[in-house]
Amino acid sequence: MTMLSVWHALIYIGDGAVLLPGALLLLAWLLASPATRRVGWWWLAAVLLVSGDVALSKVWYMVSGWHPAGWNFIGLSGHAALSFLFWPSVAALVTGRHQTGLRVVAVGLGAALALAISISSWVLRDHSLSEVVLGALWGTVVATVFLALTWRRLVQAPLASSWMIASMLLLMFLAVGHEFPSERVLGWIALRVSGHAAIDRRPNPGPQAQLPKMEADGRQTGLPIAHAHPASNDSVNGAHQE
C-alpha cells in the first residue's frame, strides 16, 4: 500500500457519508437508555452545531462570494470539523467504563486519526490549508465542550456494549467508499436562497494527487484516474468538497 492510497483511505473515513450516519447511530444508542439520554441530546446539539456551521460557511460564500482578503477560503472543511468532533468523542463514549488514563489515551488516538484525516484533505487538495485549520479548530472546540459535559456522566452510566460497537463497525464498513453529496445539496440551497442564476465557486485549489490506473495484469500505466474527492469547479453539479 502506497502513501497515496493511505491518504485516499483516510479521506473516505472522514467523509460525511461515514460520519453523519455514524453520528445518527450513536445518537440512537444514547437515546435508547434513560441513563445516557441527556448525553444523547448534547451529542445531537454538538453534531448540529458543527455540521450547521460548516454548511452555513459554504452557503455564505456561494451566495455572497465573500471571503477573508488574501485567503483561499470558501468555507470550513467538513472533513476536519466533523472528524475532530466525531472520533475523539466516540473514543471517549465507548471507553466510558474504563479508567481515566485509558479514556485519555483513547481520546488522543481519536484526535490523531482526525488530524490524519484533516491532513489527507489538504494533501489531496480537497480543501485549502486555512479551511482545514479552521475546520479542525471548530470541531475541536465543540468536542471539548461536549466531552467536558459528559465525561463524569458516562463513568456512572457507560455506553459501550458489544452490540453497539459491532453496529458502528458494520455501518462504517458499508459507508466507506461513498461520498456525501454536500456540494450539490448546498449549491441547490444557495441558488434558492440567493435567487441568482449561478453561485460563486472557487477554481481548483491545486494539483490533485491521483491514484495510478492499473492494467488487468496489475501493472501501472502511469495514466491517472479520477480523484476520489475531486476539487470543485464552476458548475453547481460539479465535484464534491465537504
From TrEMBL:
Residues 232-242 have a biased composition (Polar residues). Keywords: Membrane, Transmembrane, Transmembrane helix. Residues 70-153 form the Phosphatidic acid phosphatase type 2/haloperoxidase domain. InterPro entries: PAP2/HPO, PAP2/HPO_sf. The chain crosses the membrane at residues 6-32, 39-61, 73-94, 101-123, 129-150, 157-176. It holds the Pfam family PAP2. Residues 200-242 are annotated as: Disordered. Signal peptide: none annotated. This is Phosphatidic acid phosphatase type 2/haloperoxidase domain-containing protein. It comes from Rhodanobacter denitrificans. The lineage of its organism: Bacteria, Pseudomonadati, Pseudomonadota, Gammaproteobacteria, Lysobacterales.
